[in-house]
Specification:
This protein has 434 residues and is of the alpha/beta class. Helix content is 35%, strand content 16%. Helix 3 runs antiparallel to helix 10, helix 4 runs parallel beside helix 10 and helix 11 runs parallel beside helix 13.
């Protein structure tokens, strides 16, 4: 007989069934944290079933950059669905996908000329790693089958992606014995705007030099290390990595799933160092949070190297690759972003976050705060109790989803200054209570 978790009487039927049947991400079924039932969303607000309205400080895990229920994106979805919602991408093409790929080539760093579409960020990383491995196999160097990644990095929840996450402190450390063994360099220590010191790249340089014969690629999150610690590092480090990859004949994979489409203050975080990777992963904000979609871009050299090898093609093909509905919304989302003064808008958000987060420095529970672009981070001395702090945030009318010691926000770009002030002040009141 299936066990049913007791549910308090004030919860809705949907919430009761949710706890009975649904397994949420990073959640326990033996000690469940109740999920809040959302019935609609508009602008930056989530409307709960009980009438509560929550200001979303997370942009639905960083992807809903234009907010919810945006008329332009709604129209793109409605228009496309009447034509076709999906067709297989094997042997078939269509305008939404072709137009999206052309746009991505145009707006990403120079040299990324080919686009492979998939359906999630983790899969985009899997595709990138597979591209790197198949490239070297096709070059007659199958021994180049390892990755060099950074400590405190995060690249997704699937197996190849997990292998590139920090094996000691990362959320997947328990799988260290079952995922492929990769090489790891210390996390960069020098911040974005701090004075550069070559010592910060020294150990990375030693590792790539010593292991170059077996390294297929370096994989990293440019400038912003996301779910592995919300850390920001120097563009000089990224520029040095690009140079070392060239010197030692190692491909560079830039995981821009979290940073792409303006979040860091640049359209893509690689632009902070004015470098182009050999392979780039995109996801999250690509559709403005409407549909699941991801892309892996690569250079002409990588694509040609793969296709001139034994297989004669890249050996990968997701069922929902190039989904027309997702591609149509992605095209509308990117056009909406680029047609706005998005850089000035991100600078506005950054300034407001810096001003508001400065007030947290006096709290004993707070270790430090940091801001880059539309990313604000409050690092606590101790891990927070997620269930408890979530209730307090909801009571303040805000939606914030911390992890570990980190309370952070990545708000939708449409957030006004007054909304950002209210969001951060709500967080402040909660942390004072703690």
């Amino acid at each position: 007989m299936n066990s049913i978790t007791p549910i308090s009487s004030h919860q809705s039927q949907i919430q009761r069934k949710d706890q009975q049947f649904v397994w949420h991400p990073y959640s326990s079924l033996t000690a469940p944290i109740p999920a809040y039932e959302v019935v609609s969303a508009e602008g930056i607000n989530l409307h709960l079933a009980d009438g509560t309205v929550l200001m979303d400080g997370m942009a639905s895990w960083w992807c809903a950059i234009h907010g919810y229920n945006h008329p332009v994106l709604n129209e793109a979805a409605k228009s496309q669905i009447d034509k076709m919602s999906h067709v297989m991408f094997g042997g078939i093409t269509h305008a939404p996908a072709v137009n999206l790929c052309e746009t991505l080539v145009q707006i990403t760093p120079n040299g990324l000329d080919k686009v492979f579409l998939s359906d999630s960020g983790s899969v985009a990383v899997e595709v990138a790693i597979k591209m790197a491995f198949q490239y070297w196999i096709s070059q007659g160097q199958p021994n180049k089958n390892k990755l060099l990644s950074l400590r405190n990095g995060y690249h997704g929840d699937t197996f190849a992606a997990m292998s590139a996450c920090d094996p000691t402190t990362g959320m997947h450390h328990m799988f260290e014995q079952v995922v492929a063994k990769q090489h790891f360099a210390p996390a960069p220590q020098i911040g974005v705007h701090e004075e550069w010191n070559e010592q910060d790249i020294a150990e990375f340089a030693q590792i790539i030099s010593a292991k170059k014969a077996e390294l297929a690629a370096v994989i990293l999150e440019p400038i912003v290390q996301g779910a592995g610690g919300m850390r920001f590092y120097s563009p000089h480090y990224l520029k040095a990595v690009r140079k070392l990859c060239d010197e030692h004949n190692v491909l560079l994979i830039a995981d821009e799933i979290a940073t792409g489409f303006g979040r860091s203050g640049k359209l893509f975080a690689c632009e902070w160092a004015d470098i182009s990777p050999d392979i780039m992963c995109l996801g999250k904000a690509i559709t403005g949070g409407y549909m699941t979609l991801a892309a892996t871009l690569c250079s002409e050299e990588v694509s040609r190297g793969i296709c001139e090898g034994e297989a004669g093609c890249f050996m990968h093909g997701p069922t929902f690759m190039g989904n027309p509905l997702a591609c149509a919304v992605a095209n509308a989302s990117i056009e909406l972003l680029l047609s706005s003064d998005w850089q000035a808008n991100i600078q506005r958000i950054e300034s407001t976050l810096k001003e508001e987060l400065a007030h947290f420095d006096g709290l004993e529970t707070v270790a430090k705060t940091r801001v880059l672009g539309a990313i604000g981070v409050i690092e606590m001395h101790e891990p927070v109790d997620l269930a408890e702090i979530q209730k307090l945030f909801v009571a303040e009318g805000i939606w914030v989803r911390p992890f570990g010691k980190l309370v952070y926000v990545m708000p939708p770009y449409i957030s006004t200054d007054s909304e950002l002030n209210r969001l951060i002040q709500g967080i402040y009141r909660v942390l004072v209570k703690l």
